[in-house]
Amino acid sequence: MSKEDLDYIINKASKENAEAEILHVKIKVYEVSKEKNEQHGMAYEEDGYGLRIIKNKKLGFSYGNKISDELYELAVSSLAAGKEDEANILSYDSRKVKLEGIFDESVVNPIDNLKYYIESLDSISDKVNFINQRAVAGYTTIEVKNSLGLDSKSKTSFIWIGGVANYLGDEVGPEIYEGESSKFFKKINIDNLLNNLVLKIDITKRRRKFENNKKNIDIIFTQKAINELVVPLLTNGITLESYYRNRTPFKLNDIFDSKISVTDDPLIPYLPWSREFDGEGLPSIRTEIIKNGTLMKYLSNTYWSKKANMENTHSAFRSFNSLPGISTSNLVFEGKSFKDDDGIYIDQVQGVHTSNFDTGDFSVSANVSWDKDGGFREIIISGNIKDLLNKIIGFSSDVISYDKVYSGKMKVSGLSIA
Amino acid sequence: MVKLEEKLNSLLSMGADFADIRYMKSKTLIANSSEVRNIISNNGISEGYAIRVLYKGNFGYKFTTNLNNLDLKDVLLLAVGDKKTNVYQLKPKKDIVIIKEKYPNSKKPNEIIEDISKIKEEILNADKRIKSINVRYSENSIEKQYLSSDGRDIEIKYKISSLSISAVARENNINVSSHISLSTYLGYPIEVFDINESVNKLLNKVSMQLKGKSAKAGEAKVILSPEVSGVFAHEALGHLAEADLAISGILGKLKGKKIAKDIVNVSDSPYLDYPTAIGITPYDDEGVEGREVNIIENGIVKEFLNNRTYALYTNELPSGNGRSEDFRSSILIRMRNTYFRPGKSRFDEMLEDIKEGYLMSSVLGGQTSPDGTFQFGIEEGYKIENGEIKYPLRNVGIAGYTLETLSQITDVSKDFNVWPGVCGKMGQSVYVGTGGPYVKVEKIKVGGSNE
């Protein structure tokens, strides 16, 4: 038997009365990038293997760039340091999900497409000061096999076109990040990307100092701002690990007055985070996390599902060099609707990583924000993610995909702003 | 080695004006001990090559784990663009740098787990309000080799080891979290650092936050601790001084101009004699020997951080700031150990004339933009009233405009320390050090409660 064969490792473990799971990731990425002083094309390819072995309820893990006895021995050394745990198990599910719209053949040789997008971005270079322009396309083949007979394989493409730009005149504007991502080139809306960049650069040409004269000011988060602020705080709070370890502000059956719904949906064709199976090879499923204002479920993988004795939502997320964690796929936000544009639009926030993810407290700086009279220089928004979800007034009707978010703009009242 | 030289020569014979090859091998071990489980969460080896050519005025990059299957023509074909790219050529140099550890770790994974599990138990027993804890040990052994067509032949070996602890506590329906991070190039952190002192700091931070009150949102007089001023030097100033950002940001226009009082001095260094200065970079990932970069000297903007490309563009000497996270990543201009130089004042003297203000003691992290806006989350902070530290704060942040804030600095202490960190830029993370003294700022925006 060839050492290249994933079965080699599984059989080796079996001979030593251990269970094994091997994850093989083959990735190929192309990029064309442009800065003021440097342009490059790039190709990256890598084969990576992640190995989990379980013996006597202990878990061992290792990773490397090839299947080898050394890979196995590293996992054994990890196993020797572990602790017996009933939740150290592998999973099997015979169901298979087949998704349309996750692999675009044109990513196999995408350089001409990528050059076209860089040229498209160039077309607005008289209106914006580009700090960098990037066009990226590639694909991954993911294969998961384990001793229980699980055998999942999928190929998925990814495309990201974007730029970072600012206004550079008498004043210097903030960096504005705009990007379009999809699994298919035909779903990239380049006009939307260019229009957004020009519009926001124009807004930030002249900014005024924010003066808080009112007690309550409504805030309208764009899809980008939802992705930057709400998604990381929410993702941490709705994992079963956070719940089990008391590291979340969210409790099961929490009620949100806003009556919002938040669904984790990896099954929508073309969206950037759609997938056929999760990081443990288990078939993807749609999970209603918050339904009509009630927290229904936490996202889980096999370990935390067993540990907390709750449903496995097949939300394992990983690369070959890490153990399965838990993460969202595409997050669909729904709720009441709003139509007026009264309030302050927030498009970009800085410092989300400084939030307290265990408590949900945040204090971030909105460096791209505006109201009907123009842009603001800086605003600090402070609050708590749970409170924010409670105070959502509604969503606009212009539903779009922005990275993990599939939503309209989100209007919120009563946040602390300075 | 011969094989790499052959690749370089082949690329030159095919028309490349410049070529370099980076090899990087990274061996990583991560052990975690929490209230739920002890586990080795990462144990593996990653190695590969980054080949770069300058061909017809553009760079072409190829990153691969397998050099044997590489068709060099493909690398040339990847050199696409508008033919404006160039590179600073250096004199030939061969060097091998091995950064030796003072306290090398000889422990096996199971012994490391035992060590961190003991720390965990000690913390959980010391304060029953702590409900959840992560003690994480990581070590990353790095081997780098750099070879270029201008005759640079550099090898570097070093290891960064870290111990980080985060704890979540709950009392009277209030949840708080605190963390400490000890990273070093000198060996096993449990032997390099005084762990008892660090554990006590963590416990104190938990207690203070549980007692903490909100700060009033608005502008206030603030003293930044050495930890916070170090992050300020990195986030609010250092990023603006990265040449690729400087040319589109506020600092690019201000070179040679005075923007702050003489007491304001900020530098970026390849080496600081502190165990926590983990931005240690004797040579960068373009084979450039690191030199001190004086970003601000006596309040005047002096120079920027660069890589080989931007050194030509800004007409400065290469500074050794061209870094990449791994073999999979292109070269970016990155900081190393960025620090606010100490002054002459004593901390207690700086407090004296503050009738009402804040002491910001420790930071959760920060972010900046080329327009000079910055934001920091504050983990530990205190209210100052009539020259005395009164009560602790909870859930507070500071933000502002770098140039305004620098002009508002009125005092700098002689106390100084360096903290370890990891800096992100365009999806790449690198080890950095941040250092500073106590810094008094007359006016800065504080985020908190509107009430």
Overall description:
The complex is a heterodimer of chains A (418) and B (451). Chain A is of the alpha+beta class. Helices cover 20% and strands 35% of the residues of chain A. In chain A, strands 7, 8, 15, 16, 17, 18, 19, 22 and 23 form a nine-stranded mixed beta sheet that branches. Chain A has a six-stranded antiparallel beta sheet with strand order 3-2-1-4-5-6. Chain A has a six-stranded mixed beta sheet with strand order 11-10-9-14-21-20, with helices on one face. The N and C termini of chain A lie far apart (66 Å). Helix content of chain B is 21%, strand content 43%. In chain B, strands 1, 2, 3, 4, 5, 6 and 7 form a seven-stranded mixed beta sheet that branches. Chain B has a six-stranded mixed beta sheet with strand order 11-10-9-14-21-20, covered by helices on one side. At the A-B interface, strand 1, strand 2, strand 3, helix 2 and strand 4 of A face strand 1, strand 2, strand 3, helix 3 and strand 7 of B.
**Proportion in β-strands of chain B:** 35-45%
Instruction: Give a short account of the largest sheet of chain A.
Output: 9 strands, mixed
Report the sheet-strand fraction of chain A.
35-45%
Shape of chain A: globular
For the residues shown, what is the average pLDDT of chain B?
Answer: 94
Q: Note poorly predicted spans of chain A.
A: none
Major sheet size, sense and barrel closure of chain B: 7 strands, mixed
Mean pLDDT level of chain A: 94
Number of strands of chain B: 22
**Helical segment count of chain A:** 8
Distance between the termini of chain A: 66 Å
- Give the uncertain stretches of chain B in residue-range form: none
Helical content band of chain B: 10-25%
Oligomeric status = heterodimer
The overall strand count of chain A is 23
Number of domains of chain B: 2
